[in-house]
Amino acid sequence: MPDLDDAGPLRTTLVAGMVCLVCSALVSTTAVVLRPLREANRARERQQRILDIVARQPGLEDLLPELGDSSSELGDASSELGNVSLEARVVEVETGAYADWIDPASFDARLAARDPLQSVALPPERDLAGIGRRARHATVYLVRRAERIELVVLPVHGQGYASTLYGYLALGADGNTVRGLSFYEHGETPGLGAEIDDPEWLAQWIGKRVRDEQGSIRIGVAADEVDPESPDHPYEVDGLSGATKTCDGVTLLLRFWLGDDGFAPFLARIRP
Question: Whole-structure pTM over 0.85, yes or no?
Answer without folding.
Answer: no
